[in-house]
Amino acid sequence: MDPLNGIRHHFPQHFPHGGGIEAAAKAWGCSVEDILDLSTGLHPAGQPDWLAAWLQGHADDVAHYPDVNGEPARQALAENFSIQPEEICMVAGAQAVIEVIFQALRWSSVAIQVPCYNEPIRCALRAGCGVKPFECGEIPQADALWWTSPSNPLGEQTPFPKGFQGVLDESYLPFAERRALGLLPEVIRLGSLTKTFSIPGLRLGYVVADAVTIAQLKAWLPPWPTSTLALHLLPKLLPEADQRDAQVAQARERLEQLLGAKGWQVKPSQASFVLAKPPLSMPDFSAARILARHFPEWPQLHGWVRLGLPHHAADWRRLERLL
What we know:
The chain folds into 2 domains: 21-46 and 242-322, Aspartate Aminotransferase, domain 1 (Alpha-Beta Complex), CATH 3.90.1150; 61-241, Aspartate Aminotransferase, domain 2. Helices cover 31% and strands 15% of the residues. It contains 12 helices and 12 strands. The strands form 3 sheets. A 7-stranded mixed β-sheet has the order 2-8-7-6-5-3-4, with helices on both faces. A 3-stranded antiparallel β-sheet has the order 9-10-12, covered by helices on one side.
C-alpha cells in the first residue's frame, strides 16, 4: 500500500514554504553562508557563472520602467515555445498569477490533487473559491482543475487529464517538454523561470493561454509585469535551459542512489527534488545546518522530507555524513 494514499483529506491551517534561510540562520545562531539550503527546488549549480558580470553591465536598466508587455522576454519565450506573443503574459514569478487567477476567471470551485504546493489552496480560499481535494482516482467535478506536473512535493510527472479545463503548473517541467506543449485548449499553462536558472530574487514567470484569457488575467495584474532586469535577462538565459535540465537529472539520480544506499525509502521523482523517508528516525538537519523541507501541514507526509539537490562536492559529503 502506498503510504501517501488512504489518508483523509486535510487542509493546511498554515502555508509554509521552503527557502527561509534568513530565519533559519537567526534561529540557529549562524550566518547564511553556514547553511546548506536543500529546502527548495532551485537548480543545484546556482546562477550561471556570467550572471554577476551581466547584472553589473546592465545596471542602467534599473533606471527604466519595465515594458508593459514584458518585452523583450515575451518575444523570446514565444519563439522558444512556438506560440504567438499575445498568448504569453510575463509575470513576477508564477505566484503573481496564483494570487489573482481565481478572482480573474471567477471560478467558484477548483479540484486539486493533494498533498500539494499550498499556495493555490490559500489563494482559492481567500477568493471564496471552493477547493475540492483528491489524492487519486476520480477527479471531483469543479469549475477548474489545478494540475501540477511534476507534482510538488511528490515529484511525479503526469500529463494534464483529458476532458478537463483549468491550470497546468509546469514550473518543474524540463524545457524540452515545455516547448512541445504549445497552446492547450481550455488549459492555462503556468510556469516559473526562477527554478531552472536559480534566480528567485528576480521574480520571473509566465502564463501561456489564449489571448482572451491572457487579457482577463492582465486586468488583475499590476501594469508592470516584473523588473526590467529580469525581462532583459531571460533571452540570455534561455539557450542554457536544456543543459541545466540535464544537470538536474544527473544530480537527482545521484541523490536517489545515495538515499537508497542509506536505506531510505524514495519516491521516484522527475523534479529538482526528492521526497524520501529515513529507515529509522529523522536525522537532525538543524544540527548539520542543512535546511530541508518537512511537511507538518500534511499528515500523510509525516516522517517524510523533501530534499533539493546539492552541487559542490563538499555539499554532497556534508549531506552523506548526516544520512
